[in-house]
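Example 426, ligand magnesium ion.
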Amino acid sequence: MNDTIFALATARGRAGVAVIRISGPRAPESGERLAGPLPAPRQTALRVLRRADGEAIDQALVLRFAAGASFTGEEVVELQTHGSTAVVAAILRELSEQPGLRMAEPGEFTRRAFENGQMDLAQVEGLADLIEAETERQREQALRVLSGALGERAEAWRADLLRAAALLEAVIDFADEEVPEDVSDEVATLVTRCETSLAAEIAGTRAAERVRDGFEVAIVGAPNVGKSTLLNALARREAALTSEIAGTTRDVIEVRMDLEGLPVTLVDTAGLRETEDLVERLGVERARERAEQADLRVFLVLPGEAPGLPPRDGDIVVQAKGDLHGEGVSGRTGQGIDTLVSDIVGVLEQRVSGTSVATRERHRAAMQRASSFLAEARGKLDDGPDAYDICAEELRGAIRALESLTGRIDVESVLGEIFASFCIGK
Ligand SMILES: Nc1nc2c(ncn2[C@@H]2O[C@H](COP(=O)(O)OP(=O)(O)OP(=O)(O)O)[C@@H](O)[C@H]2O)c(=O)[nH]1
Ligand SMILES: [Mg+2]
């Protein structure tokens, strides 16, 4: 049986309210020691929390959840106290002195929720992403994963493949009896349907990963065209040094931004040119690398000059120092900045339009493994009934790969990593 754990579930520090959560078999008893008789499950009661010696600590709202109907799936008591560091410290101290209770480790509540079947592994990842979400897009995507969208998809694939494998196995088992009807058409249909659907999900994973991690947008151009000034204008702060001297920026400067709900890291780099200055040359090399890696490049170009690097499809080329030339963008006056932002958002929106419910490298890897098993299976199917047993084996391989998505199997290796990304109290 699990021990009973507790932790502050809200952020540390002064706040209006703090939530302390207790989970495990001793939670009700523990809550009663502090608060007196507990309310019925899912009801609240206003209670004075007291030390073992009877002295009042704070007045709090007390909630109770029954095993099987709580976040962790265990008995849970939640205390909503005043959000004072002294109150929280006093309650945590009191709880740690109760027998059989201990402070929770990071992610331990969620781990229990997973182990008790309250959520699948993909939902756990969705929850981690939701807690981390900083922009609207991130929030929407994380909520989709948390609500179980990937698990549902995986379950549908799995059901198709289980049926396909069962059809083949029926033929194998009755091979010595009457000639069975031909199952290969139905198996082929099921496998192809699954392959097509997997391919679509795999294709959308990169974009979904970008929504999680953020897009990188590099500002690129010759020295002195106003790259750093533009970065500062976009960031609305002096993130980068600017000067009239060509070659001012040498390091890569990054600013994280929320562009209309999309997470974007703006990258300012050294101006591209041939130079004798060793340090500047290192900066230029780095600039080329970052421009290469970026999801999108914004080229700042003066009239009659070349961009310095060949722009790719979807890159944005704008005229620098627009205030001096009538059109273009100007970090100095703000001219053209709004248009530039909507152009950037436009390009990135297009790339996220096909996002999938699979949002991580782990998901893509599992789906790709399943796909390769299915390609093998389809090949074997063409070899006729003699190859049905090998074909069924390949289908089992695909099913196992899909099961790892939701953590039905193969979880130990990833569990530690996933739960460690949570803070204490979640
Ligand atoms: N008129 C005008 N001047 C600008 C504009 N943007 C930058 N400048 C000036 O141009 C000079 C260079 O600006 P920076 O932003 O440092 O240029 P940079 O492209 O980052 O230059 P490096 O870091 O050397 O590659 C500074 O004197 C700026 O004040 C603009 O939009 N209009
Ligand atoms: Mg600069």
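Summary: The domain at 4-118 is CATH 3.30.1360.120 (Gyrase A; domain 2).
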